[in-house]
């Protein structure tokens, strides 16, 4: 894949842009293999599209009210417009002109980093598998909220795929994507992600994988391994909005999902009800919750999908010293995966698979099935 922005030096976010896709995947798998036990049975990598795969656009807003840019900032804090980014989902790209027009209509001044003036810092747009959108305006204050509310009907008429629109407040001058407070401006407060037989609810601040097609294959692989093992009980630690937990829920199987985010927990519980799935969703820190359970309550399978930093020593060591016979570990960072596995020598990797979640970057997702030796 070629990218005019990358070739012009305007954006280098996709560090492997221009490298043949097959070569990218091969090198990622070779690196992951080198980090794991040589006896692991590797399944063929799961590879999706190299274009228009990204279901979320995180656009920094620059320029002016009359001519806003949606993309990134250059070294001088000037806006660089990336509306035609080739890895962004086509529905998001099609929506960006209407969003740019709305910024002007509602008179929302882009935030200027150098002077620390202005209101609109980011526009975050997520697309569901059905093409519906969640649009979030990250603002410095509520100053422009009355104008946003006033002109929102016009935006929704121009952009009928927008199901959820919200304002996120980030009052401080910090290099983060969003703030703590979210104000939902539409009747719908969550985007529905239909993934086969399971539909997940995604609220504005919750996490979901950036590549929907690959995420669905992740869930399917975990479900296939789980059905093969046939456990009567499963824990999904770091369950988020319930992706793994709800895909593993089945008749005769007790599934517990554990997650610290209140918004994600509410979404997972609502999804379980709507899908008619028997999964218990618990709001707690995964490590502390696991450590507090009795030996008699331990499951036959634990699924973990931690952030990039990995499980860390406490949870890895708990798993090592527990009697849990199998673990499915889905990792977005092979280095932290290897570090965690080194702390769990009794849980040997027996199968592994690479999922090309992030084409044109060094990143990938690796799923490993661990069995107690």
Describe the protein in words.
This protein has helices at 4-7, 21-35, 90-105, 145-158, 212-229, 243-248, 262-275, 286-292, 312-321, 334-342, and strands at 41-42, 56-63, 68-73, 79-81, 120-127, 133-139, 162-169, 181-184, 191-195, 198-202, 233-237, 254-259, 279-283, 301-304, 326-331, 347-355, 365-372. The chain is an alpha/beta fold. It folds into two domains: 4-50 and 208-372, 3-Layer(aba) Sandwich (Rossmann fold); 56-196, Beta Barrel (OB fold (Dihydrolipoamide Acetyltransferase, E2P)). An eight-stranded mixed sheet has the order 1-16-17-15-14-11-12-13, with helices on both faces. A seven-stranded mixed sheet has the order 4-3-2-5-6-7-8. It has a two-stranded antiparallel sheet with strand order 9-10. The model has no long low-confidence stretch (mean pLDDT 97).
User: What is the CATH fold-level name of the largest domain?
Assistant: Rossmann fold
> Which CATH C-level class of the largest domain is it?
Alpha Beta
The CATH architecture of the largest domain would be 3-Layer(aba) Sandwich
Largest sheet: 8 strands, mixed
> Tell me, what's the shape?
globular
Low-confidence stretches: none
What does the average pLDDT come to? 97
Radius of gyration of CA atoms, rounded to a whole number: 22 Å
CATH superfamily of the largest domain: Vaccinia Virus protein VP39
Number of domains: 2
Helix amount, in percent? 25-40%
State the end-to-end distance.
44 Å
Strand percentage lies at 25-35%
- Which structural class do the helices and strands define? alpha/beta
Q: Please write the string of helix (H) and strand (E) elements.
A: HHEEEEHEEHEEEEHEHEHEHEHEHEE
Count helical runs.
Answer: 10
**In what order do the strands lie side by side in the largest sheet?**
1-16-17-15-14-11-12-13
Number of strands: 17
């Amino acid at each position: 894949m070629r990218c005019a922005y990358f070739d012009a030096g305007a954006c280098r976010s996709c560090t492997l842009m221009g490298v043949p896709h097959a070569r990218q995947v091969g090198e990622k798998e070779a690196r992951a293999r080198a980090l794991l036990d040589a006896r692991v049975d590797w399944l063929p990598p799961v590879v999706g599209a190299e274009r228009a795969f990204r279901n979320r656009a995180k656009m920094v807003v620059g320029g002016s009210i009359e001519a806003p840019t949606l993309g990134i900032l250059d070294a001088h804090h000037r806006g660089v417009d990336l509306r035609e980014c080739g890895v962004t989902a086509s529905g998001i790209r099609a929506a960006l002109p209407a969003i740019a027009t709305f910024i002007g209509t509602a008179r929302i001044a882009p935030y200027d980093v150098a002077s620390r003036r202005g209101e609109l810092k980011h526009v975050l747009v997520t697309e569901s598998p059905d093409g519906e959108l969640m649009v979030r305006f990250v603002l410095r204050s509520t100053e422009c909220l009355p104008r946003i509310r006033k002109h929102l009907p016009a935006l929704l008429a121009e952009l009928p795929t927008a199901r959820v629109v919200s304002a996120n407040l980030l009052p401080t001058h910090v290099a983060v994507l969003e703030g703590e407070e979210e104000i939902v401006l539409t009747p719908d407060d969550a985007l529905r992600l239909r993934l086969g037989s399971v539909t997940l609810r995604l609220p504005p601040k919750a996490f979901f994988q950036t590549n929907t097609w690959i995420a669905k294959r992740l869930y399917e692989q975990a479900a296939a391994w789980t059905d093969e093992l046939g456990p009567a009980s499963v824990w999904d630690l770091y369950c988020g909005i319930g992706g793994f937990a709800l895909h593993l829920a089945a008749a005769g199987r007790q599934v517990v999902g554990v997650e610290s985010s209140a918004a994600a927990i509410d979404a997972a519980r609502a999804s379980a009800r709507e899908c008619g799935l028997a999964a218990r969703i618990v709001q707690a820190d995964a490590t502390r919750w696991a450590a507090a359970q009795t030996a008699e309550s331990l499951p036959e399978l634990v699924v973990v999908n931690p952030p990039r930093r990995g499980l860390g020593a406490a949870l890895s060591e708990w798993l090592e010293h527990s009697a849990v016979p199998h673990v499915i570990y889905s990792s977005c960072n092979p280095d932290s995966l290897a570090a965690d596995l080194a702390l769990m020598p009794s849980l040997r990797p027996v199968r592994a698979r690479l999922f090309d979640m992030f084409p044109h970057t060094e990143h990938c997702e690796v799923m490993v099935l661990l069995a107690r030796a």
